[in-house]
Write a structure and sequence with these properties.
Blueprint: H1 7-14, H2 17-22, E1 38-41, E2 53-56, E3 61-64, E4 70-71, H3 73-81, H4 85-96, H5 105-131, H6 138-146, H7 151-156, E5 160-162, H8 168-175, H9 180-185, E6 189-190, E7 199-200, E8 205-211, E9 217-224, E10 233-235, H10 251-259, E11 265-266, H11 270-278, E12 284-285, H12 294-303, E13 308-313, H13 315-328, E14 339-345, H14 349-356, H15 358-366, E15 369-370, H16 371-380, H17 388-402, H18 408-426, H19 474-492, H20 501-506, H21 512-524, H22 529-540, H23 542-550, H24 552-555, H25 558-561, H26 566-596, H27 603-620, E16 623-624, E17 629-631, E18 638-640, H28 641-659
Parallel strand pairs: 11-12, 11-13, 13-14
Antiparallel strand pairs: 1-2, 2-3, 3-4, 5-8, 6-7, 8-9, 9-10, 14-15, 16-17, 17-18
Length: 663
């Protein structure tokens, strides 16, 4: 509609913004200065305790420093009342006594018809309420009483009854002179396909009026009294007044309750909303028999930034909520999301309230899951991720969902949260058996003085007595240093953490600092070097990583001497992980053989250790003089001189036992 020049300016001048806003907020008297038109209050558009919503009455504008909502009196009425621009103009003009200029004939005729339809709907509301008091509604009253609805509650919700007759409402409205096209246009009757009189849409049902944000009756929901009826609940057909996908049951009262700080709760049906309201949860709404639509989501977010979706504890209820996630992901904005309260299995909010009371429901609301957690639960619940392929499938599915989020900041935070949840699911676990390095201490088999026959720990050299590595056995030093090289290299190049994620997860890390650094890499490596270093410094102290880098074997590694070379780092980490993996396999084989020596030595034990010795012989042909290590051929493993000596001593003991006839 085109309004005459100057009309809106005059309307804004005559309407006091503080009076318009004052119907929805409670002013903070300490911050507000009414004489200057400088008013402050908690924002009606998002839940908060502080007064960050500012109204400048002289300029006629409002602004929220929390959610950044802004506008004038017309936009405020549009947002809070969920009405169109012209409807907001009419509301304000009516309050200040200004006549709204006539619209063009077609628009005026449409508006007039909507007004007439709303009046017919009000007449229907009153007629249905009267029918609830008749003898024909005895079963309906008994049902409502059984569901815990007192007469006061029935009056508040304007519950009525449609008798099981074909033209009961039709005849009543016709008797008041209502035109056929208005009864049909309001969806209260349907034309006969057989050429007879139109018949009532609702018959033999308990009636729930559906009102819009302005409080106008726009539709009905009817619950069948006949258990054999195909449709347990039936809504009005869509009309000029009623668009099912743009309407919510109890939206007007819920908006007011949310403005008072109550949570906005989305339930499945009328009875849930009525039960929630009766228990003190007045900010409850329900979609009208269908899955929540995009328009309904936007309505919910205009009322509260984080509506709580209550999920019935059945499969259908949970599937509906999971579909809602896919709808909501592209629409997310900063401070605008959903939370989910999962009801006990087989129960809806009404069932829970009647069984356990408001306290039980409040606990569920307080522990409502953020949407990212429900997304994770949907993708992981009941599934087993015991192979790289299954883990990769999970990663792919989650990436596809996160890509739906348009807001880059929210998309980034979802990625971080999913990364944390994935780390919790796949974080490295303690090895099943105690790790026994090659040449480690084990059960004595006859050495003098109770010492192991295959040798014991060597005394540290004088030059190494001050080293932090002295505390462990010489045989463990090689493994310790390999782990240090891997961890330091990845700290210098955290972009490779994802590449080696599986290898890192499987790395046992007997040293507590190594284990903690490994976990930090897995959890924060993807976030970049700055975030990773902050977490390392916070968790281990700034000196921990520097001390690890200062160890000679680590410091001379080429990719650590020249940090930033991604290709060299990738090759080094891959090689060191492979050697560690192979070393663990050899250690386990020898450890098992050693355990078998608690009984008579047999050919299997001898063969297994001979194979280890053969590997050691291969190592001796490629001695690394500087480090004192041997390369174990194709296995890519190394064995220290001490480990080789221990293995030779063990084989000698077995051969001696066999020569004495003990095999």
């Amino acid at each position: 509609m085109s309004l005459p020049p100057g009309f809106l300016e005059e309307l804004r001048d005559r309407a006091s913004l503080s009076q318009v806003v004052g119907r929805k907020v409670i002013w903070d008297t300490r911050k507000s200065n009414q004489g200057k038109g400088d008013m402050w209050a908690p924002c009606p558009f998002h839940q908060e305790k502080s007064a960050s919503f500012h109204v400048d009455d002289r300029k006629g504008f409002y602004y929220c420093f929390g959610c950044h909502a802004k506008g004038d009196a017309i936009s405020f009425v549009r947002e809070t009342e969920n009405v169109s621009f012209m409807e907001a103009v009419e509301i304000i003009a009516r309050e200040v006594g200004m006549p709204v200029p006539k619209q063009d004939p077609r628009a005026q005729a449409k508006a007039d018809k909507r007004t007439q339809l709303a009046e017919v709907m009000e007449q229907a509301v009153q007629w249905f309420r009267l029918q609830l008091r008749t003898g024909a509604a005895g079963a309906a009253r008994e049902y409502l009483t059984k569901r815990g609805l007192s007469e006061q509650a029935q009056a508040h919700w304007e519950i009525g009854f449609a008798p099981d007759s074909w033209q009961g409402l039709w005849d009543a409205l016709k008797g008041k002179g209502v035109a056929d096209e208005l009864i049909l246009g309001a969806g209260l009757a349907k034309p006969s396909s057989k050429g007879g009189r139109p018949y009532d849409t609702f018959r033999g049902r308990i009636m729930f009026p559906i009102r819009d944000a302005r409080g106008r009756a726009i539709a009905f929901g009817g619950r069948a009294m006949d258990p054999e009826d195909k449709a347990k609940y039936l809504n009005s057909p869509e009309t000029e007044l009623f668009d099912k996908g743009r309407s919510l049951y109890n939206v007007k009262d819920a908006r007011a309750a949310a403005g008072r700080g109550q949570p906005l709760i989305v339930a499945e049906g009328y009875m849930d909303v009525i039960a929630l309201h009766g228990a003190g949860f007045e900010g409850a709404v329900a979609p009208l028999g269908t899955a929540i639509t995009e328009n309904q989501l936007q309505m919910l977010w205009r009322i509260a930034p984080e509506p709580i979706i209550t999920l019935d504890g059945d499969v259908a209820g949970q599937r509906a909520a999971l579909r809602l996630i896919d709808l909501a992901l592209p629409l997310l904005e900063a401070g605008q999301s959903l939370r989910f309260a999962v009801m006990p299995e087989g129960q809806d909010p009404d069932d829970l309230l009647r069984a356990q009371g408001a306290g039980a429901l409040q606990k569920l609301l307080d522990s409502a899951l953020p949407m990212v957690r429900l997304l994770w639960q949907r993708e992981t619940e009941g599934k087993v991720f015991d192979s790289p392929e299954r883990k990769a499938a999970l990663d792919k599915s989650l990436r596809e969902k996160i890509k739906l989020i348009r807001d880059p900041s929210i998309r980034s935070h979802y990625g971080q949260e999913i990364k944390d949840l994935r780390w919790e699911l796949f974080r490295p676990q303690k090895p099943r058996a105690e790790f026994r390095p090659v040449g480690g201490r084990g059960p004595s088999k006859g050495g003098k003085g109770g010492k192991p026959a295959w040798g014991g720990p060597q005394a540290p050299l004088a030059s190494t007595k001050a080293s932090a590595l002295v505390a462990m056995g010489d045989d463990q030093v090689g493994i310790y240093l390999r782990e240090a090289v891997i961890l330091v290299a990845l700290c210098n190049c955290p972009t490779l953490v994802e590449t080696f994620e599986t290898g890192l997860e499987a790395m046992p890390c007997a040293d507590p600092d190594h284990a903690q650094l490994r976990d930090l890499l897995l959890r924060y490596g993807h976030a970049g070097a700055e975030v990773l270093n902050e977490q390392i410094s916070y968790s281990l102290g700034w000196e921990a990583l520097e001390n690890m880098k200062a160890q000679r074997h680590v410091a001379i590694t080429p990719c650590i001497r020249k940090p930033g070379d991604v290709d060299m780092t990738r090759m080094t980490v891959a090689e060191e992980l492979a050697k560690l993996d192979a070393a663990r396999g050899l250690n386990e084989e020898i450890a098992e053989a050693v355990e078998d020596l608690s009984g008579p030595a047999d050919e299997g034990v001898t063969w297994r250790l001979s194979e280890a010795a053969r590997a050691a012989d291969m190592a001796s042909r490629s001695t690394q003089e500087e480090s004192g290590e041997f390369d174990l051929g194709d296995n890519g493993m190394t064995m220290s001189r001490e480990e080789r000596s221990a293995l030779d001593a063990l084989l000698g003991t077995i051969r001696y036992d066999k020569s004495k006839g003990r095999e």
